[in-house]
Description:
Oligomer: single chain
Radius of gyration: 60 Å
Shape: rod-shaped
Strand content: 15-25%
CATH architecture of the domain at 238-358: Roll
Distance between the termini: 215 Å
Amino acid sequence: MAEKKSSGKKSEKKTVKNNKSQKVxxxxxxxxxxSLSLVIILAIAAxxxxxxxxxxxxxKFYPGTFINEYDVSEATVDDxxxxxxxxxxxxxxxxxxNGELVDVLAAKDIGFDTTSILANVQKLSDDKNIxxxxxxxxxxxxxxxxxxxxxxxxxxxxxxSVNGLNVMTLQPTVVNQNAKVIYSEGQYVIQPEVWGxxxxxxxxxxxxxxxVDNMKTTLELKDxxxxxxxxxxxxxxxxxxxxxxxxxxxxxxxxxxxxxSSYTLGKETLRSWINVDDMGNMTANEEAIRKYAQTIxxxxxxxxxxxIERKFKTSYGDTVTVSGGDYGRLVNRDDLREEIxxxxxxxxxxxxxxxxxxxxxxxxxxxxxxxxxxIDLTNQRMWMYSNGQVVVKSDIVTGRPTDGHxxxxxxxxxxxxxxxxxxxxxxxxxxxxxxxxxxxxxxxHDAVWQSAFGGTRYKDGYGSHGCVNLPLGxxxxxxxxxxxxMPVICYYHSPA
Length: 496
């Protein structure tokens, strides 16, 4: 009996074990089946997801997609292109100056060609990840795509249109002016530059091209610094230094010395002697200096050979006009001009010393002086003055006018004096004791062969070859007082 019981328990255990094995097998089968089903479902879902990406979004852009800032969400390639093309064909560039309309440049004026955009849009569509469309629905986001050179245009039509714009010939309301040195209220100052609005068309063309290339719609001229600038500004070193140098010259006290007399020049005279250009470069005004030198020449030249007629007060107390002769002062105009220029162009010279080619014995106001010989050719008389006093008075015999030997009038310089000279000429040789020439071979001398002097003897056949004949004693006295270089004045006078 015991053995039977033992056998029943073993059979029961086998049966339970078999049942458990069957259950595990069933679970595994279910799990496998479920897994296979899940894989199949996922495969179908993945296929479906991929299919949607490849088919639905083949030529469409994902939600949130922008191309060059154009919203192309779920738009087809053709729709995206049409959107861009329509916007480009409606493009206008408005050009203003200080807010005032100057020009409008429209797409039709430029000849836009947008065919390249379609290819670029298509490429962006082709390059998108077809498996990424889902995230744009699950987590919306903005994605900006772009490509370079949005548009092309007809270069010839563009250039023709741009060159024909009003802005290219716009006249300035204010013209540029460089800063420059000017004379104002007694001094040289720098006049500041003027900033004008004359347009630099090269800069404008560059700005217009940038606007068109980047589809900008407005261009304000004042914002692009398209105006020509003054080239020379008020702080230019050359201007500053030039004005300072010119003012230094004007502020100098410059004097003119004429022999022993001098005077100070006024500022306007000094200014007339210089030219100061816009840059402050100072040069001598040759014409003004020439005129001033001529004025000095006219004022202080007394030499008769330069057309000057001398007013001479005679021993009779009246005044006669005497022309001709070689006595008198002669201002050297050429040297004076150089002297003035040297003073003008130096930094510190303050004196102009008037140069003379020939001098005289007298003063500036009376160059005859106080020592001279006075000869009245009409009344045949002469006077010798020494230091303002008559020291010799004598009747004379002058040149014979009937045969062309008349003694010429004029103011002459005594060339020299000589004792015991021999006077020679055509057909004669005469010894004299006192010889004082003043006009070539014409001079004063003693004439012992004359039996009388004065009156009309010079016309009555007793006249000389041009010399002034004197009594021997009178000639000796005149010789005593005569000074080489002194004036000898020969004049015609009414009968006395």
